[in-house]
Amino acid sequence: MRDALLIALFAFLGAAAAGLLGACVLLLIRRWSLTAHLAVVAGVGVAAMLAGTLAVARAMFLSAHDLSVVTTVVAMAAVVSTVTALLLGRWVVARSRELALAARSFGDGGSFAAPARASTAELAALSRELEATSARLAESRDRERALESSRRELVAWISHDLRTPLAGLRAMAEALEDGVAAEPDRYLRQIRTEVERLNDMVGDLFELSRIHAGALTLSLSRISLSDLIGDALAGADPLAREHGVRLVGDRGEPLPVEADGREMSRVLGNLLVNAIRRTPADGTVAVTARRSDDGVVVSVTDGCGGIPEEDLPRVFDTGWRGTHARTPPAGAGLGLAIVRGIVEAHRGHATVRNVTGGCRFEVTLPATEG
Question: Three-state SS for 349?
Answer without folding.
Answer: strand
